[in-house]
Amino acid sequence: MDKITAKEIADKVVKTLDDKKAFNIKMLDVGNQTVIADYFVIACGSNNTQINALADEVEFKLGEAGYPSTRREGRGGADWVVIDYDSVIVHIFSRDARTKFNLEKLWADAEDIDISTLLA
Q1: What angle do the packed helices 6-19 and 48-64 form, to 10 degrees?
Q2: Which of 9, 53, 86, 105 sits in a 20 to 30 Å window from 71, CA-based?
Q3: pLDDT, tens digit, 9 for 90 and up, residues 86-97
């Protein structure tokens, strides 16, 4: 299988989240602000069940494409799940947790990538 870029992984994550009805999806290019990743994909689920279903689907779809996650934090009743793909970190929040942690403000210097062409 051909190696895909971090941007292509992030795009696939966005499409998968959108297909499973995540909301308020954002992609941030954090590559110039940190060495931990090139992109953050941030999204919300309406409840813990959907948050876990979204995370499971992202892991399934990317694993199916040959890109398994390196780790995942937050399972069961968690209101924030983080999936690490090394160059892409996926954050799936409840609405309240997203407001509380406000990653967009924390990473305000990151470029907000236009994902409108990726959404259904």
Answers
A1: 140
A2: 105
A3: 999 999 999 999
Cβ-based burial of 49 (10 A; exposed 0-12, middle 13-18, buried ≥19): exposed
Residue 19 main-chain phi, psi, to 5 deg: -60, -30
Q: Is 51 left (phi over 0), alpha (psi -120 to 50) or beta?
A: alpha
**pLDDT 10s digits, 20-59:** 999 999 999 999 999 999 999 999 999 999 999 999 999 9
Q: What is the pTM of this model?
A: 0.94
Closest CA to 48 of 85, 16, 12, 75: 75
Beta pairing, strands 39-44 & 88-93: parallel
